[in-house]
Amino acid sequence: MPAKAQLPPVPRPDRRFYAQNPAFGRFGMRWFTPQLMAHEHVHGHIEMNWLTAGSMDYLVDGHAATIPSRRLVLFWAGIPHRTVDVDRGAQNDSRQCNVYLPLDSFLHMPNLGRLTETMMGGGVIALPPGSIGDDTLTRWYSDYRRGDAERTDILKSEIALMLRRAATDSWDALLPPWIEAVTPATRSATPLRYAVAMIRHILEHLGEPLRAEDIARVVGLHPNYALNLFSAVMNVPLHRFVVRMRLIRARSLLFEGNLSIENVAYDSGFSALSQFYEQFRKAYGLTPRQMRATFHPA
User: Fold this and answer.
1) Which residues make Cβ contacts (< 8 Å) with residue 298, sequence separation at least 6?
2) Is 29 helix (H, G, I), strand (E, B) or coil?
3) What is the CATH number of domain 16-175?
């Protein structure tokens, strides 16, 4: 067996795809030599790890998970995590590819079912062997490095299809979910469990009016306490999180069908068209009509 590599700690992550707001990172990819992490960190992504050889040991909020080579491994990076041991393989030449999928983009990927529940519950999953390989990841990285928005959208669509296929077929839990569901009857739970329960309720009722009182009632908390707890865990106010998720849904509806702009706004949960236009332009720098035209030119 090759010896575990004693590697220097990875430097503090200072990459633009982490973004200033840790709740919602930017999409990103990188290839690098596997490294230890001196400290745990969090960022607003579903993180995907791929090793060409060897293995890595992670701590995910204190829970141990071993990352094998040549399996795409995914987890919610909003939970504190760090690499604590690295085996760089028999030739000491392992390379690591990380894909950083923004949390809000992931939460709007349809038909993932238990796969989503497992990761949002703190689990670490591995896709089946053969789901992906070096060639595909290299092509994705080349597309990402071009900085072309349309290529990046295609890349995200390929990721979504890969995850849907895995959700339909099979995947392995390297670390089972440990953040249990919360109901109003739950006497006590960690802040993270409450936040996950609130996220689930928001996503299931995104097209409906969502008041803080109603969201807090789902987990049996006082509204003010629920708002403060959500902000502390997710690093974003609950209202801003709801708006962000509605904008992601609206963007999808603009590209997927022929709904009028007004219907896109209302189906996404915006009660006023003026509010929709204001928030959309602030987020994307374009009006909804301009955004649609970029993908469906006349």
Assistant:
1) none
2) strand
3) 2.60.120.10
Q: What is the DSSP secondary-structure string of 103-117?
A: HHHHHT-SS-THHHH
Region for residue 236 given its phi and psi (left: phi exceeds 0; alpha: psi -120 to 50; beta: otherwise): beta
**All CATH 2.60.120.10 domain ranges in the chain, comma separated:** 16-175
Phi then psi for residue 56, to 5 deg, are -140, 150
Q: How many CA atoms lie within 13 A of 280 on its CB side?
A: 28
Q: Is 225 helix (H, G, I), strand (E, B) or coil?
A: helix
Of 27, 176, 156, give the one whose Cα is nearest residue 114.
Answer: 176
Determine the Cα–Cα distance for residues 263 and 242; give it in Å rounded to an integer.
Answer: 18
Is residue 249 within 8 A of residue 269, CB to CB? The reply is: yes
Q: Give the CATH number of domain 191-295.
A: 1.10.10.60
Note the Cα 5 to chain centre separation in Å. Answer: 30
Tens-digit pLDDT profile for residues 23-40: 567 899 999 999 999 888
Structure tokens at 70: 């040549």
Residues 40, 81: contact at Cβ < 8 Å? Answer: yes
pLDDT digits (tens, 9 = 90+) for 249-266: 888 788 777 889 999 999
What pLDDT, in 10s, does the model give residues 146-174? 988 889 889 999 999 999 999 999 999 99
For CATH 1.10.10.60, the residue range(s) in the chain are: 191-295
Predicted structure pTM score: 0.70
pLDDT digits 0-9 by tens, 222-258: 999 999 998 887 777 899 889 888 887 888 788 777 8
Looking up tokens 């306490």 gives 225
Taking a C-beta distance cutoff of 8 angstroms, is the pair 25, 13 a contact? Answer: no
